[in-house]
Write a structure and sequence with these properties.
Number of helices: 8
Oligomer: single chain
Number of strands: 41
Shape: globular
Structural class: mainly beta
Strand content: over 45%
CATH architecture: Beta Barrel
Helix content: under 10%
């Protein structure tokens, strides 16, 4: 049954839905505002949120930086179980994704449209789990957000305190810590189903056990199943060279993009004495993904035609240690962690084979052991990724009550990525060929036409200081600097066998040694540099409820290696931010309203794309500018009615023509005409809606001696693009703006909660990404007879309804 049709007999536009919700909420708001002016000091207040974004525990209203935070209470109210659930309520954050394990996060429009492939640039947004960075080269980890104290979003450069991968901002996941104060435990069980899809469930639980009055342990576990909503439907493909047609009959399946995630977390807190505490912790998660999460509009709504299995097994663990202590009146914090992530994947690459055969006649070179053209040379990619990250940080913090107070520290990390991508064709000529001339497979890999087997190592060391001087009781000046040095290398093999190509792969090897399992070595590059990043902040506190600030800050992202020999290393890029903002509380803290206006220059920014043979290339584009504003507000309108809202507007554009790179030198072409430019001045940066906003209304009441609530929320985004280059945007199109709404009703009594919810209630087909599996000019081509362009659209999840029960002890 199509649930959306059952509850929505007529088509309702997203704009109308958003308008009706906003109108209803503002009607309530108007009545409540009149009451607020007459409220007494005993009236309910907006709940205080304490954050550690500044490396100190402070109320979010007292920190003179832009912060968006979702505390534990808000995460539970919004039924957050995965990344997409909470990021839609953080207006400064946008992202691109292909599967839950391949997501790139952006903030304030600082996005160039990375192809999210291996050997690409480091992320521009840092992700932390408690005190340890978990940002990886291969994208953001979708940590199951259960038993979290809060999620903090710090938009804008955070380079002085958080370093290299916090050029555009930082996302922090803060877990609930063990406490020896009392025993506590809880669980939540959820059943749900997608419209157009299958059923799912979520089971979560935690227990906090005091061992002694100075020692406690907290253990958390989760198990989640997403039912899927993309159908792999029957289809066929014909290869131009062989004339052979084949089908996907054995793989046809409804709701084939299922996801299973389970994991756990444990932390031990030991108070050695009144001044020293150690907290070792461990987290592990296993995620198994089937299918793809983009549908093909040419095939049908939420439908694709895939011809080989698509699977992804992503698991990680992190062991961490945090030590908190005092030396005199100084706080000392050490945090260290070791992180390891493994991904094993299989990806259907039939689109590549079909389009390259049709356009370039490549099928004539895909032959068997006897030299005969293969009738079905469909490719698949067998991938293996192994990540590690080691990080150590030591910092000292002086008392905030001192007129001059500071934070100073040292940091080092080393992360590695062993990349194996094995492009296989069943029956492709290998070592068993009677005629050695027909052995086209990469040596040691029968049936492999292309092999990538590389080791990437990124190293970073830094020292920083951030000091604040209270010029007067109301006026403060903060200055920060971070000195850094990085050394990034890429070694190994990529390409064809020497029988297949005379210039790429084995034929270009300069070393017969085996770095891992590759036949030889044709890649060994390193780039190193050093520099510094800065921050200056001036804050004026009118009174305890109102402050205003100005910030100048910079951020950076390290350079790296291009494995394509025609391109030199890409350089570091930098972000310079000028920001004014204010934080205010009104009506005895029944209303808070915060806002920031910023102007950011993004210089020499890194841009990655698929070039010839669909090989990743990274260039430094010229520069871009982002002008924007972001705001958030919480309003406890009455004892029972509350509102939260937030929004951001970003005008993110190129400020010079992007002319590409001279392939003979690898240097950026400084100027060109609009006709010759890959992207012209004024082009909107990708994955950046000009406006993103949300509003949440919650009403509580008594229902048969139960504490009941109803909640409505709405999110709206304007259109945005998926590519920077004009040719890419012409082929892939734009992602239209959309609105989506969630509703919930629940009751609570004596720690027991029951709730019914509906997400994306009007089944909006909002888009999170558009992509093509190989070079855009090839796989998105409209010139191939009988085959529609291979363009995939990743939608937001369809309408989902669910029931949830939970209990806390």
């Amino acid at each position: 049954m199509n649930i959306s049709k059952a509850i929505q007999p007529t088509k309702v536009s997203n704009t109308l839905v958003a308008g009706l919700l906003a109108s209803t909420m503002m009607t309530y708001a108007g009545h409540a505002l009149a009451q607020a002016a007459e409220a007494s000091s005993a009236a309910p207040q907006v709940q205080e949120v304490v954050v550690t974004a500044s490396r100190r525990s402070e109320s979010i209203q007292n920190i003179p930086v832009s912060i968006q935070a979702l505390d534990n209470r808000k995460l539970e109210q919004l039924n957050v179980t995965q990344f997409q659930d909470y990021v839609k309520y953080t207006p400064s954050v946008s992202f691109q994704t292909q599967t839950p394990s391949q997501t790139s996060i952006y903030m304030r429009g600082v996005a160039s449209g990375d192809n999210a492939n291996h050997s690409g640039p480091l992320p521009s947004v840092g992700v932390y789990l408690d005190e340890q960075p978990i940002t990886t080269i291969g994208g953001t980890i979708d940590v199951h957000p259960y038993d979290m104290a809060r999620i903090e979003v710090l938009p804008g450069p955070q380079g002085t305190l958080y370093g290299a991968s916090s050029e555009a901002g930082t996302l922090r996941l803060i877990t609930n810590k063990p406490t020896s104060a009392a025993f506590s435990a809880g669980y939540d069980i959820q059943g749900n189903t997608f419209d157009h899809g299958g059923p799912g469930y979520v089971a979560e639980g935690f227990v906090n056990v005091p061992i002694t009055d100075k020692m406690a342990v907290r253990i958390v576990g989760w198990d989640e199943h997403d039912g899927g909503y993309i159908d792999n439907v029957a289809g066929s493909r014909t290869f131009a060279t062989s004339g052979s047609t084949f089908t996907n009959a054995g793989l046809v399946k409804d709701n084939f993009n299922k996801v299973d995630t389970y994991g756990g977390r444990a932390a031990l807190k030991i108070d050695l004495n009144n001044n020293w505490t150690i907290t070792p912790s461990f987290i592990a998660q296993d995620q198994r993904i089937d299918g793809v999460f983009g549908y093909e509009p040419a095939v049908g709504d939420l439908k694709v035609q895939r011809f080989q299995p698509d699977t992804d097994h992503d698991r990680f663990f992190q062991a961490a240690l945090t030590v908190n202590g005092k030396i005199g009146n100084l706080d000392l914090v050490y945090s260290g962690g070791y992180f390891a992530r493994s991904i094993d994947s299989r990806t259907d690459y039939t689109d590549y084979s079909v389009f390259y055969d049709a356009i370039n006649g490549s099928g004539a070179f895909w032959t068997d052991n006897n030299g005969n053209v293969l009738p079905n040379p469909a490719q698949e990619i067998v991938g293996r990724d192994r990540f590690t990250k080691r990080s150590n940080e030591l910092r000292i913090v002086s008392p905030a009550s001192d007129r001059l107070h500071f934070i100073a520290g040292v940091f080092e990390e080393r992360q590695t990525h062993w990349i194996v991508q094995d492009y296989q064709i069943a029956g492709f000529g290998d070592a068993a060929a009677a005629n050695p001339a027909n052995n086209f497979s990469v040596p040691g890999y029968p049936g492999t036409i292309w092999l990538t087997d590389q080791e990437r190592i990124d190293r970073d060391v830094a020292a920083y200081v951030d000091a604040t001087f209270d010029i007067t009781p109301k006026l403060s000046l903060t200055a920060g600097v971070r000195g850094y040095a990085y050394n990034n290398s890429l070694q190994g093999f990529f390409g064809f066998s020497s029988n297949y190509s005379s210039g790429t792969g084995q034929a270009a090897c300069f070393n017969d040694s085996h770095y891992h399992n590759e036949p030889c070595q044709d890649l060994d590059k390193t780039v190193a540099a050093s520099g510094e990043t800065h921050k200056i902040n001036l804050t004026y506190r009118f009174d305890p409820q109102h402050l205003a600030y100005f910030t100048y800050s910079t951020g950076y992202r390290p350079g790296g290696v291009n494995r394509n020999g025609n391109f030199g290393p890409y350089q570091a890029d930098t972000l310079t931010n000028y920001e004014v903002g204010f934080k205010t509380s009104w009506f005895q803290r029944r209303l808070t309203f915060n806002a920031a206006l910023y102007d950011e220059d993004w210089s020499n920014f890194q841009f990655s794309f698929l070039g010839p043979n669909s090989l990743t290339i990274i260039e430094n584009a010229p520069q871009a500018n982002i002008k924007g504003v972001e705001f958030n507000s919480d309003w406890q309108a009455t004892e029972h009615l509350s509102f939260s809202t937030g929004g951001s507007y970003n005008d993110a554009k190129l400020t010079k023509n992007f002319c590409g790179t001279d392939q003979s030198t690898g240097q950026l072409i400084s100027s060109c005409s609009n006709v010759d430019a890959e992207a012209v001045k004024g082009t909107q940066l990708p994955y950046t809606p000009k406006f993103k906003g949300n509003i949440i209304a919650r009403y509580t009441f008594d229902l048969f001696n139960w504490n009941a609530h109803v909640q409505a929320s709405a999110v709206y985004l304007t259109q945005n693009y998926v590519g920077l280059r004009t040719a890419d945007t012409d082929s892939l199109g734009k992602m239209s703006g959309y609105a989506t709404a969630d509703f919930a009703f629940g009751v609570e009594k004596h720690g027991l909660t029951l709730e019914a919810f509906i997400k994306n209630a009007f089944d909006s087909r909002g888009e999170e990404n558009r992509y093509t599996p190989c070079t855009v000019s090839v796989c998105a081509s409209t010139s191939v007879q009988g085959v529609a362009p291979a363009v995939y659209v990743v939608p937001i999840q369809p309408m989902q309804i669910g029931l949830k029960m939970g209990q806390k002890f």
